[in-house]
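re: that chain from earlier
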Amino acid sequence: MLIEEARAKVNLTLRVVGRRVDGYHDLESLVAFADCADRLSLTPGSSLDLTTIGPLAAACGETADNLVLKAARLLGERVADLKVGSFTLDKVLPVAAGIGGGSADAAAALRLLARLNDLALDDERLREVALLTGADVPVCLAQSPCDMTGVGETLLPVSLPKIPCVLVNPRIPVATKDVFAALGLRNGELLVGASDIIQATDWPEPGASVEDWVEVLAANSNDLEAPATRIQPVIGEVIAALNATNGAWLARMSGSGATCFAIFENTAEAQRAAQKIRLDHPGWWVHAGVLS
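^ sequence. v structure.
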């Protein structure tokens, strides 16, 4: 049996540059990964199938539509005699939550299949399948912090310190397509000016402190936060709850929501904040840990 962790993806920033004529949105996002993860295992065999287990297995929907199987089938169309088997997904991350749970699972499946078939992770077929499976799958394939641009195809590695954080999801799913629809861009419409596109964000140098990073992050934003909050006002409540904790340096929504995060000076403060939110909102999903 082969095993991979599918870590939660967190968009520390997310800028919507515009909408292409083909309907896809161009983005720029600083992406980090949390220390909470789904767990995907692969037992080699003659047939391709998937079993979901774990506390949030029921939220995964129809197995046939799962991105794990989609990614595996797409890779099978490109790699002759691809060795496959039975996947088991232990689902602990919330779905439709803005932290790339399904994308991370698909990326983990590709890493497992790469190991089983002696494929390098930079194999062009893997990269092609990742992007075809979903916009967040390429960044989840590498599972390392980077500046992601375009529709997810361009990744520039970034050196991040370990950032203490709390992740909170109100257990209300938010569909990405609905958030982009609420953004209201027409095909071919730019959200930012040409000078803004040329002027890329200047991220801190390697070795910079968490405080240095927070200063730069605070000068940026998540363009999807406002439309997502219009769809699900509880997102505003989550951010307010994070801001109300002692020591929260920055609170923001990740991806298209509804998961939000807050950055803290140290892990002890993050743990205390998480405990307070769990007591005040027992129905919410809460994780205290680090981003890297």
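The domain at 163-291 is CATH 3.30.70.890 (Alpha-Beta Plaits).
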